[in-house]
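Q: Joint fold for the lines below.
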Amino acid sequence: MKAAFGILGRLMIRPGSALAVLFLTIIALAAIFADLLPLDPFRQNLLHSLEGPSAQYWFGTDELGRDILSRVVYGARTSLLTAAGAVAVAALFGIPIGLIGGFFGGWRDAALMRFVDVLLALPAILFAMALIAVLGRSQVAAFIAVGITGIPAFARIVRAQTLALRKRDFVTAVESFGGSSGYNMFRTILPNAWSPILVQVVVLCSIAILLEAALAFLGVGVAPPTPSWGEMLRTGKSYLYEAPTYALLPGIVLTLTILSFDTIGRALGSLLEDRHDTGTATAGGVTS
Amino acid sequence: MRKRLSGLVKVLSVAAFAALPMTAHAADEALEGGTLRVGILADMTNFDPMQFSSVNFFLIKNLYDSLIEYTAEGEPVPSLATAWEIADDNTSVTVTLRDGVTFASGAPLTAEDVAATLEKASDPEKGKNVYPTTSIIDGWETPDEKTVVITFKSPVPTRQILDLLEFTMPIEKAGIDTVETVPAGTGAYELENRAVGQGVTLTANADYWREGEPVAETVTFTIFSDDASASAALESGSVDLVYGGSARSAKRLGDAGYTVFRGPGPLVQVFRINATHAPFDNAAFRQAFNHLMERDGMLRVAYAGIGEVVALPWAPASPAFDASFNDTYGYDIDKAKALFAESGLSDAEMSDWTLLVNGTDEAAVILSQIVQGSLSEAGIDIELDVRESAEWIEALLGGDFDATFAGIGNVQKFPSRVATNSIYRTVNNPVFGEPHPFPDYVEAIAAVDAAVGSEDEVKAAYDHLNTVLIESAFAIPTNTYDVGIVVASPKLAGFTPEIDNLFVARTIGFK
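A: Joint structure:
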């Protein structure tokens, strides 16, 4: 926890990453407290369809007379939940695959990496669309689809870290004292490989949000009336002439969210790289 | 074929017209020819006029002519038939063919061609969309080269006979087997070339029988991938006209000064209910949906206000159309709630279903959300089951849904033609199966088919059908909407209304 706050503190020193953290904090709070919105994002008012910005509706209304601002705020929940779910799915499968492949090597490594190669060869968007066609349109289907496309990246990063750490003294020492393979993988190697994993988590968040928006834009995201930034962009495109500001807010928020995750990911990578260069690997994790 | 009974009595006699009153441009405006460039949104399937699919609507009435045509008000006028005589017992019709009509091949139109066309139409495999219309036919004969006598299995209402003649587009006998790939009609245009997925070019039939038509010597159809691209092409001057675009684009372009031409043959959007299982097997629960449809808002939001709200499955041109039902069964959330309460179902039972949605149909997505919102207001929360088009069609035609929105056609012709739509079928209904769970509806359709007596008798049959439709409530119409809407450059004129909203190019020219 102390290390985490230390990293956060160093992130906040950089103006770019500080802004990104601040923006994502606002988005996260919006997602958490979306139910407290003054205007119901689901409430239709057909008499106020496609209205422009006004005192009552700051960013106008959609085709069903719903408040666009409220729907964008509520859409943060959809995007962040999808991102979190996708990261969980990708990490749940990708990390063990990378650990087992890197730790044991041989045929197990070859088989797992060929499986990962197959996943990598599949275009992410097409694979996700095919999976959603089978599972049906829902938020769970969306994050499973996006999460599966994130497995290869996790598996490769963890495998590379495992290969690098596998013959280090602290690993062979645990083996010499009778430590099992499972203990060594999950209690010795994994804690020492968490830096690139953390960076990958942040990077995958931005990819997951973008992919979820792309799926929604193509009409296979979460089902209406659940607000989604991608779905709002898609619908806004249809009403470009009647309501040119419709897609403005979801577009800006989506762009800034992805940009923020990307900025934090890059900053984290840079920070942890510096930290790795000066740090010491131990069976208990990284210390500096 | 069977010999026609003697004693034919003329109940409708139409004099041979030298010229037709169908054209909208009339003689008050001289139009110039040239090349008419038309934007469309989907490629055709084949050249068979019996493949009466909306993707072929831009071609059919340019390559083929019907025996008769309807005016926008639904009045029959001559076309290839100069006269038709219906027997006083409504068991036969004698059709007199026009002289001087030739097919694209140069061969003259004869009664044998019409007979060959009827034979194809009466074949369940070859008749395609026209086949159901021919179910009333018992046989036909061709006493001479210009006369065809069609006999019916039982007395048939006059309007149904006229529908049959309007739906019959003669195909040259020699070309009937190859008509899917080689058009064989008497139309104002002939096929010059077709580039699959890109477009079709037609050239004027030099021997066309209508004087002064076609106006434009060439018509080029260009396929656009979406409505916005086609509209942009019109605005940039790349095309002169867009056929089959969205109502919203039509509204916008109409406001910008483009000509918007709407035909008399819209479709009707219908909330289809699978009444075979709970909670929709409860009559009061279904009837509540008559009052749950916010039709004005639906029409305005989903179709830019282009169309009419309807509580019955008829377009205004239909003889069964009755606007009074729109008021009686208008949006009233309190009445809907009262009927929900009357149903005796628990909240959980009333919410235990999903609304199937065609995710590729923008209007259906909007309408479904509006109904979902109205239900929520009435205290019933349901989920939308949004599927891709192919998956949705499979569920729709297989009856694998609780409720869904889908359009119906044939709503401006003889009322029993509504039974050609799957949810309204009286036999082989894919949703309800056999026996039909609404015998009153089946009997009401049969009564309409049998109503060949006085005007009052016919009207009584229509009124009864309308009442049964409302009470059965297995399908809740919401509004008409245009298929085949035309948006054109202001420099064009001469648009011809077609009863099914098919595209008629022959009268269109440049001012």
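Q: Anything notable?
A: Chain B touches chain A at residues 228, 248, 252, 294, 297, 300-301, 359-360, 362, 365-366, 368-370, 372-373, 376, 383-388, 391 (CB under 8 Å). Confidence is low (pLDDT under 50) at residues 1-27 of chain B.
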